[in-house]
Amino acid sequence: MVRAAVLPAVGAPLEITEIDLPQPGPGQVRVRLAAAGVCHSDLSLSNGTLRVPVPAVLGHEGAGTVVAVGPDVTGIAPGDQVVLNWAPSCGRCHACSLGEVWLCAHALDGAADVYAHRTSDGTDLHPGLNVAAFAEETIVAARCVLPLPAGIPLTDAALLGCAVLTGYGAVVHAARVRAGESVAVLGVGGVGLAALQAARIAGAGQLVAVDVSPEKEELARAAGATDYLLASDTTARDLRARTGKQGVDVAIECVGRAATIRAAWDSTRRGGRTTVVGIGGKDQQITFNALELFHWARTLAGCVYGNADPARDLPVLADHVRAGRLDLGTLVTERIALDGIPAAFEAMLAGKGARALVTF
């Protein structure tokens, strides 16, 4: 038996309870979690913005130690320290054949599986986004683990599994920020802070952080922001005023709200790039007129998992961490236990803090 945070139904409160995990089957490994980040996507899963089979153990950003492996597993052994990969590529679908592994058609197939049972009544449980990291231990497919690069603290490494890969990838792969460009990051949560650090590493010139909370200015500046702007109805106008009325070269939206996406678009210079990282609901509708699309000649692009290939990008991120260019610890504003996750959800809804990290 292990303790886990179970989502019994969409919109229901999480339940901290004991679950039974089977022995790992063919192609599976069992991992003892060291830490799991509380991501806004977990909140979106719990409230139904994103679909997930329920009951489920949520949590998709984690790192830990392999404690057992099933038959046919090679290259992984008990004692190995690993980062969980919630969106493993199949290597066979059309997207994978194009090298776009972040769009793999089968990445989330495992989320529909029954992977464990509630101890009290035997209820079937699904593994959230494949990995069920809100638990002391989990069972995952072998392709859902990546070896932890040397020199990276295991607890902080949990952040590499989603926030850092997403924020870094949004800057480097999706927006393709170049040295000297001006960049605005709208939304200073875990992903936004990672994007700020990535933009600084990429050599961005003016780097403006935008958020509703004045308390996040210190976090943003520590991540590399040269300017801090409180979000308002005039965000786009204020951003353009700070860039000689031209607008920023790149705007990266990390909130997922129609108003914020529109502000990001409006704050981007003519011919600039707007990258949307935040996950919004179907009710968040954005409109553009044909003339402005022609006149501004901006690029508006979505971004899934930072357009990242975890196997390729994890060693690069580890090199930045070891060299001191990327500070994982600055993304964490609170370290909590499993029973602190509901409060972390409430803090996210209120726009407080950055990443809450569940430590085991």
Mean pLDDT score: 96
Label the overall shape: globular
**Structural class of the helices, strands and pairings?**
alpha/beta
Main β-sheet: number of strands, strand sense, barrel status? Answer: 7 strands, mixed
- The H-and-E topology, N to C, reads as EEEHEEEHEEEEHHEHEHEHEHEHEHEHE
Instruction: Report strand %.
Output: 25-35%
Percent of residues in helices: 25-40%
Give the distance, in angstroms, between the N- and C-terminal Cα atoms.
Answer: 15 Å
Number of strands: 18
Compute the CA-based radius of gyration: 20 Å
Per DSSP, the total helix count is 11
Low-confidence stretches: none
Short overview:
With about 350 residues, the protein is an alpha/beta fold.
